[in-house]
Amino acid sequence: MKLPLCCSALLVLLLTPSFSHGGNILVIPAEGSHWINMDILLQALHSRGHTLTVVRSIKSWYIKENSSYYNTLSIPVEKNIDEELITNVMKETVQFARGTLPLTSFVHMTIGMVGIFKDFHAVLCEFVSTMLDDPAVIKTLHESRFDMVLADPCWGGGPILAKYLNVPLVYNGRWVIAEEAHFSIAPSPVSYIPVTGTGFTDRMTFLQRVKNILLYLITYIQNDVIARQIYQPICDKYLDPDHDFNQIKTDADIWLMKTDFVFDYPRPTMPNVVYIGGFQCKPAKPLPEHLEEFVQSSGEHGVVIMPMGTFVSELPDDMANEIAAAFAKLPQKVIWRYKGKRPSTLGNNTLVVDWMPQNDLLGHPKIKLFLAHGGTNGVQEAIYHGVPVVGLPLYFDQYDNLLRLQERGGAKILSIATVDKDDNFLKAIQEVLTDPSYRENMQRLSRLHRDQPVKPMDKALFWIEFVMRHKGAAHLKAQSYNMSWFTYHSVDVVLFLTAAVLLVLLTSFMFIRCLFRALCKRKVKRE
Amino acid sequence: MKLPLCCSALLVLLLTPSFSHGGNILVIPAEGSHWINMDILLQALHSRGHTLTVVRSIKSWYIKENSSYYNTLSIPVEKNIDEELITNVMKETVQFARGTLPLTSFVHMTIGMVGIFKDFHAVLCEFVSTMLDDPAVIKTLHESRFDMVLADPCWGGGPILAKYLNVPLVYNGRWVIAEEAHFSIAPSPVSYIPVTGTGFTDRMTFLQRVKNILLYLITYIQNDVIARQIYQPICDKYLDPDHDFNQIKTDADIWLMKTDFVFDYPRPTMPNVVYIGGFQCKPAKPLPEHLEEFVQSSGEHGVVIMPMGTFVSELPDDMANEIAAAFAKLPQKVIWRYKGKRPSTLGNNTLVVDWMPQNDLLGHPKIKLFLAHGGTNGVQEAIYHGVPVVGLPLYFDQYDNLLRLQERGGAKILSIATVDKDDNFLKAIQEVLTDPSYRENMQRLSRLHRDQPVKPMDKALFWIEFVMRHKGAAHLKAQSYNMSWFTYHSVDVVLFLTAAVLLVLLTSFMFIRCLFRALCKRKVKRE
C-alpha cells in the first residue's frame, strides 16, 4: 500500500492551464535564511504566471535588486541591520555556548537577544516609515493594485502594509517577533507545548512545566513590549485610528507554516494554518563531477557531510582542530564547509569546501551522516532524505529543532561545551554511523513526511491562489482575533457566575439567620 | 483564476494502481442517518479493493445482512433500540416544538433527551458485551487480523473494540456521545464556540456567553455520567486494567469530521482531524422520466422541494394542511415528500412523493428553493449545489445547522411554533425566492466548498489508507490525551507559583517586621 509521490506534482500541472491570468503579489520578506526559503516560493509563484514585487532595503544583504522573476521596490533607508555586528554576536555566542546548553539557548532567547531584537525591529520600523512617507512609493503601491501581500510574519511590515492597502495577507514563516507563530494564534496549553529555547519535549516533568510557563510569560512580555513600543506608533501614524498592532499582526488570511507534525510535536492548530514544512525540499540533482568523484571514492564506508549555517562558517581554531582530528580517524570520507584557517590536523579523507550543494548531497545514496547545526532548513532536508544526524546546536531554535529528531531516534545532539572533550565528537559520529536504528528512524520520518495527499509546495501555491480567487479567506478566521483577552478567556462570565453563586449563598445565609433569630425571639418571648 | 474540479477525482485514480493489496477493515457503525453516510464511504473503500466487515445487531433497522461490498458480523442481541419509540418521541417533539424554539432544542439536547440517551448507550453496551462474551465472535475477530477499526464516534463500541484488538482507530462522524466531537479533543473556548443546542453564533452577547458556559457544563456532566456509568464497566471487564473510557474514546488515530469551515464556524482544531464535510455530495444524475417531466413543466418559475428527515415524514394534520395551502398559492411547482394523510388543501402544482432523489434534484438547474429540516446531510448538499434554503428545524442540531446558513445569508429559518400563523410559511418562501441575495450567498458558499486542493471523499480515503500503511498516525496525536485535567490546565504549576510568590511575600514581610522591631528596641534602649 504505497503512494506514488508524483501525484501531487501532477496536481499542480493539472491546475496550471485553468488560470486565465496571474495575480499581482506584493512581497514583504525578511533577511537571512528566511529569504532563502521565500525566494524558492517566489520562483514557484513566478512559474505559475504571477507578478511579484519585492520590497527591499537598498542596503539589503541577500535580496538582489535585479531578478528575472520579481520586480523590486527598493527603499532608501539610512539605518540597516549591521551584518558584521550580528556575525560577531553569533561568534561570541559560539564561544559562550561552550559553557552550557540548553541554558545558553534559554538565556539568549530571552535576555541576551532582547537588545538585538529591539534594534532589529526599530530598524525595520524605520523602513516602513521611509516607505509610507515617500509619495512616489505610495503612488506605486496604490497604482499597482496588488491582489494580496505575501509576508514573513517575523516582523511587522507585512500586516501593516496589508492593512494600509486593504488587501488580503498571507504569511510564510514560523516566527512572530520572538515567539513560535502558533502561540500568537492557536490555543497553546503550556503544559505540553514547550516554548522554544527551553529544550523541553512535549512530555515535561513538573519542574520543566514551571520553567516552561515562566519562559512563556517572559516571551509574551517581550513580544508585547516590542509591539507597543516599536510597532504601535507606526500603526497610529499611518493607519486608521484604533488599529491595535497585536490584533492586526494575527489578522492574516492564511498562515503558511514552515513546519509539520513529522518534525514538530502535535498541538492545537487553526483552520487557516497550512503546514508546508519541507516545501523547499526536492529530489537530489546529480553532483558536480569533482564532488561525485570524491563521494564515489568513499567506497562502502560512504560520506559524512558538515555544512554550517547562514551566519557561522568559522569556528575557534582549537575547536576546528579537534573536529578535523576526529574526522581524520574515520574510515568515511568527509565534506566540510569551512572558511577559517586550514586546521593542522586535517586528514586526507576530508575535503574542505566553501560551499556545498546540501540538498543534492543529502539525497545521494553514499551519504551516511549529516553533521547539522539545527537550522530549520537543514533539519527538514534531513527528514526529507532520511539521513541520520549528529547535531551541534548553537543558538535560537537549533537545539529544539535537533531535539525533535533526537526524540524520534534519528539524531544525537552534542553540546558545544563538551564537543572537544573525551573524544565526544568522534564517539557520537561512530555511534550514529554504526547503530542502524538512527538511519531506520530517519527513513521512517522521511516516509511519513512524503506521504501527504498534496505536496507542501503545492499546498502553498494552492492557498496563495485561493486567497486571490476569493479575495481573502475570511471563513477560516476564527472570531478570537476580535476579542479582548478577558472576553476570550470568559473572565467576565466566570466572575459573574461566581458573584451569582456567592449572592445566592449569602442571601440564603442571611435568610436562615433571620429566620433562626425570629424563631429564637419568639421562643424567648414565650418563655 | 478558476480551479478545475476534476483534479482531485483524478488524484484518486492516480493513487489506485499503486496499492499492492487492499486493507482489512472492521467497521463499527451507528444506526439511522449516520449509517447512510458511513455506507457511502464503505462503497468507496470497497471500490479501492479493501475488505470490509460490518458489525451489526441482528435487530438492525438500516444495516443489511447481505451486501455485495461488505461482510457482516451479526450479533444476536436481545434488546434493541425501539425504533417505534424513537419515532413517537420525534413526533411528540414536533408537537412540543410548536411551543418555542430554540429553547426546545436546548431543553431536548440537555434534559429531555438524557433518558433516551442513557437507554440508547445501555443497549449499545449490551451489544458490546454480547460480542465479547461469544467465543465464536472472539475467534472470528482475532483470526480476521484486521488492519484497523473504522467507527462512528457517537457511541463507545468502536474505541473499545479497537483497544481490545489493539489496532488503529479511525472515526467517521461529528458527535461524541452528547457533544460535538471537537469539544472532546480540541481546546474549545466557550467564549466564541457555541455549544450545539444553544442556537448561538460565534459572536455572542454577554448573557449568551453565560448560557453557553452553563450548557457546556451540563453537556460535560452528561457525557461524563454516561462514560462512567455505562461504558467504564465494559472497559473494566474486557480490557486491561486502568483503561479510562474517557481517555480511550479520544484516542483515535484520525478523526474524519463530517463538517468544514464553509459550513461551521472556524475554531481551534487538532492535527489528526480531517474535514470531510460534504464528502457524500456528488454531481446530480439525470432524474427519473416522470420527475424530469414534472420539473420541466414548471417553466421559468422553477421548482421548490421539501424532503423530510430520516425519522419525521408525517406532520400533524392541521400543519400539513397549512403547508399544502401555502404551496398551492405559489407559481412554482412543488415536490413534497410526505407519507401522512393527503392534505385537503393540496394544490395542482404540488406532487406528493414517498421518496425523492434529493441530491439529483438539488443539482437540477430548475430547483429554486430547498425546504430543509436542517439535518447535516441536507445542509451539506444545499451548500454543495448552492441552493437557497427555508429551514424548518425540529430537534438535535437542526436549528444550529440552519443558523450557519442563515448567518451567511443563504437561508431563512422558520419556527415550527409560528409556521402556521400569519402566512409566515408562504412569506418566507416568497422572500427567499424573490430576493436574489439568498441564491448568490449559497452559490458563494458552494464555490468556497468546492475549492479545495483535495476533495473531501478523497481526503477520507487517503487518511484511512495512511493509517493502514503506517499502522496508525501516532505522530499526529497530541500528548493532551495522556494528561489529567489538572496537569493539562497547569493547575498544579499555577498553585505552586502562587504559593512561591506568597511565601516570598510572607518571608519578606516577616523579615522587615523583625528588622523594624529590632531597630525600635535598640532605639528604646538608647533612650
TrEMBL record, chains A, B:
Residue ranges crossing the lipid bilayer per the database entry: 493-516
Alphabetically ordered keywords of this record: Glycosyltransferase, Membrane, Signal, Transferase, Transmembrane, Transmembrane helix
Pfam family, one: UDPGT
Stored SUPFAM superfamilies: UDP-Glycosyltransferase/glycogen phosphorylase (SSF53756)
EC code: 2.4.1.17
One annotated Gene Ontology cellular component of this protein: membrane
Major location (coarse): membrane
Gene Ontology terms for molecular function: glucuronosyltransferase activity
Family per similarity comment: Belongs to the UDP-glycosyltransferase family.
Designated name of the protein: UDP-glucuronosyltransferase
Lineage start: Eukaryota, Metazoa, Chordata, Craniata, Vertebrata
